[in-house]
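thought: user wants a sequence for this fold. calling inverse folding tool.
action: design(structure=
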């Protein structure tokens, strides 16, 4: 009888240990699946990252806020961005420019403030518009009557490709600067002076 009880206890113990091992392996497997699942849900690379550029020119603080799309092998001007159509000069929300001082651009005054920066690209010249409605998605609410300033610039072509849309604000002299936009093989720029 003692032998029978001992054998019974050994069988139960072995069976119980096997079950615990199986359960542990199952838990580890489930944990691995959950961990692996989390690793696979890493966020995708942003195709048009939000960025900004700014500079102090004299006592004027110039700030440009925009989303920067990439070329990614596409034809941009005359393709993705159609000629002779309003473009928000970036991706997603409208690009905006802010200045804390009145500026002179193309012989006209741009009062201190925040403006939507829109363009109408074409092969030979671009129209630049600074619009009072700066807070909008793309060009959905663009209205010419809200333009505070509108002027023309000549595009410059390059053999080199600027992969991501890039704005720059550069100082020319103590009270004069230059704003430029470069993307794909096209660059435009315009000068401004701080109004005294």
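)
observation: tool returned 196 residues.
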């Amino acid at each position: 009888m003692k032998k029978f009880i001992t054998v019974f206890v050994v069988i139960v113990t072995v069976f119980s240990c096997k079950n615990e091992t199986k359960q542990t392996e199952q838990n580890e497997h489930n944990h691995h699946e959950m961990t692996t699942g989390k690793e696979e849900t890493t966020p995708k690379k942003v195709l048009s990252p939000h960025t900004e550029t700014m500079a102090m020119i004299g006592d004027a603080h110039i700030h440009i806020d925009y989303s920067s799309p990439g070329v990614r092998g596409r034809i941009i001007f005359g393709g993705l961005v159609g000629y002779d159509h309003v473009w928000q000069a970036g991706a997603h929300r409208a690009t905006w420019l802010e200045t804390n001082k009145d500026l002179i651009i193309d012989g006209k005054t741009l009062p201190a403030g925040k403006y939507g920066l829109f363009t109408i690209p074409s092969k030979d010249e671009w129209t630049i518009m600074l619009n009072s409605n700066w807070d909008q998605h793309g060009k959905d609410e663009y209205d010419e009557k809200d333009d505070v300033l509108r002027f023309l610039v000549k595009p410059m072509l390059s053999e080199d490709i600027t992969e991501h849309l890039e704005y720059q604000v550069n100082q020319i002299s103590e009270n004069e600067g230059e704003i430029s936009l470069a993307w794909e093989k096209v660059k435009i720029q315009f000068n401004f002076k701080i109004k005294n």
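thought: summarizing for user.
answer: Here is the designed sequence. The first helix runs from residue 2 to 40.
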